[in-house]
Amino acid sequence: MKLQHIFLLTAVLIASGCEKVLDKTDLSAFNEEQVFNDTLLARGYVDYVYDQNLPVWPTGDFLKATDEISGETRFFEGTVQVNTVADFGTSVSATNNYGKIRSINQFLVKMPSSALSEGYKKQLMAQVSFFRAYRYFDLVQLYGGVPLVLEPLGAIGEEEKEQAAIPRSSTSESIQQIVTDLNFSIENLPGKWNDSNDWGRITSGAAAGFKGRILLHYASPQFNPNDLPERWQAAYDANKQAIDLLKANGFGLHQSFKDLWFTEANNPEAVWVTCYNNKVGDQINKNQTWDNNTRPSYLGTGSGSNQPTWEIAQAFPMKNGKNIEEKGSGYDPKLFYKNRDPRFENTIAYNGATWHINGNTNYKLWTYFVNNKTVEQKATVSGFYVRKAIDPNLPTGAVANSGTDWIEMRFAEVMLNFAEAACGINKLDEAYTQLKEIRKRAGIDPGADGFFGLTPKMTRAQMFQALLRERQIELAFEGKRFWDLRRWKQFETKLNGKRRTGVTINLKTSAISPEDFAARRDGMSLDSVYRNYMEIVPKELDTKYVINWLPEYYFFAIPSTALTNNAKLEQNIGWPSGTFDPLR
After folding, report:
1. What is the model's pTM?
2. Angstrom distance (rounded) from CA 533 to CA 512
3. Where in the cell is it found (predicted)?
4. What is the maximal distance between C-alpha atoms in the chain?
């Protein structure tokens, strides 16, 4: 909740008469010297870039198109069209990728000639270069290679239309440009900002971590179907650099998986963070919506819309580290919640769970049905709620103004990225080391062999699958699962032809009266409740279709409006009239 300068930028620009700065290609149209030669205004421009580009709490189709959360999506219905994924953008707008890149380019072109000190200029440019890399990777992971615009051009449709009509660069060229920008950021940013008011600014470690994430994607089967070893080596080197830089500057795993979302400035796990606050009626208020959209509606003003599937509930291992289907796991399907990996309890809320919420440390969540009618005021469709990152002490009336910061990249993700890259080059011992540290923090028992439930001596292929499952658990509901399934091209093998499921938990009225149970339930042993009075009935959540992810979705179509506006663009192979190979 630091980085207050982001929210002050509008006032700064208005006061200086520069509110139109970002709408101009010709920077001589305003007092350029005032903006680029003034420390405060130059920094204000950078802060505008932050405000326009920082990622937000996950939502929408990409969150629903997984085995984590229920909800209809065209990706699973198999009805994605050419114009469905329209993030390409065909006009200058602060809301699309190329509009944001244009504002970024204006700064990067003009700042080198500023009279400010070289060190300060590079520090500002390094922050802005990071976001150019972020915007371009947002495009590349959707479509493959894209036109690389590195100078501010006029909007398509204006006089500069011919200049702006440039062809797509290859995917490899696009990745190289992204890496170039991030290398500049790594070289010119501090490992840690000294002023606490700068919490939330990009560090060299964040830039290195993002570079590691990108090169891991580029090494994965979606981009690397031939398993080229040099891709995995590049990913390994980048993630090793990120780990080293972050550790050297005090970053690492938070001591508590449960509490890491509620530690703000100087949170050791928050590698890349978007800051929010819980102010109301203030010109610099910036509230997030995750808490309000996720908690049960009757526990605040929330809607309970992010509801976990039975599949994700079953994905968590046991406290001994074994998957529930493994021999010796100790899993009891009647007591699905018992002796699970502690991350289960801190990620998913289920019928009978004790949930510290609204300041009540002993609140009991009940979602069961009596004679086909829920005891909830509004039933959860899946039988579960997401518990992760829901502020336990937020008062009921303050839910809509939650200020919990979004952590786009946690140190745990950097560790998992490094482990996967290490596996890619057959350094399985290093992968084991990262997994053990993460599982130790989670609270999984080490076991007699010290492997925390992991199978010793895994093959490369087995380790890859173990890592993907660990990511599914550790990073659940953080917006990473869609991209993991996509980069590993696993939608067909894990989800196609299936329907996601939830559960209905029925009270056995033949064993106890509803009134008697309601009066006694909070004081009962939960094991006794489930053994004697509850029946768990699976139910389908996808009622309109079986999942039908299509191969062409691994690289989405360039929207037709973009093709119309730029005759030099090629459509991706696999889509109508497609000639562009996104693997090139």
Report:
1. 0.93
2. 7
3. Cell outer membrane
4. 82
